[in-house]
Amino acid sequence: MKKPKYKSDVYAFVFLSLGLGFIFFGCLSFINIIKPTAYSSVQDPILAGQIFCFLGTTLCVIQSGFRIFSYKQEKLHRELISKGTKTVGIIEKISLQKGITFVKKSPFIVYYTYLYKDKIYHNKSCLLWDKPNLSKGDKINIFVNDIGQSTF
After folding, report:
1. Domain that holds residue 132
2. I want to staple 22 with a disulfide (CB 3.0 to 4.6 A). Which of 33, 48, 56, 65 is the partner?
3. Are both 116 and 131 inside the same structural domain?
4. DSSP letter at 149?
């Protein structure tokens, strides 16, 4: 699996894993490998299997929403690089995202500010898996469209 570029990629992976797990346990419940305990509010294994499969399917549908959102972000990024107006931005801070880990590494996010059409915009980068060779106050090239969406 490639490293996720957006937080929505991470969420999609988590929701897909959970959804498939629930569907798997639902199938195990259908064939009576997993049986409800005496303390379970649902005593019928078929009904428990249906509930597990419904929850798994719901999580997989939510995952597809995150995938669509990631696809649109990537499409916007490519469009801004190819057709956007190039301007200069200033780095405000570089932040290590300790809440996200992939192969024992945490990504960085660069927060930046830029001026476009006499208006100041604040934005952040996608997930960067290698420490950027930048520091606070450095100037970077920004690609921006007419409504203020940007990337670098």
Report:
1. 84-151
2. 56
3. yes
4. -
Q: Do 102 and 64 fall within a single domain?
A: no
Contacts (Cβ under 8 Å, ≥6 apart) of 11 = 63, 66
Residues 26 and 56 in one domain: yes
83: its two tokens: 């057709």
Counting the structural domains of the chain, the total is 2
pLDDT tens, position by position, 34-53: 888 888 888 889 999 999 99
User: Strands, E, within 38-133: which ranges?
Assistant: 85-96, 108-116, 119-124
Q: Is the pLDDT of residue 1 over 80?
A: no
Residue 26 to residue 42: CA distance in whole angstroms: 13
Cα separation of 126 and 143, whole Å?
A: 14
Structure tokens at 58: 């719901």
Q: What percent of the chain has pLDDT over 90?
A: 80
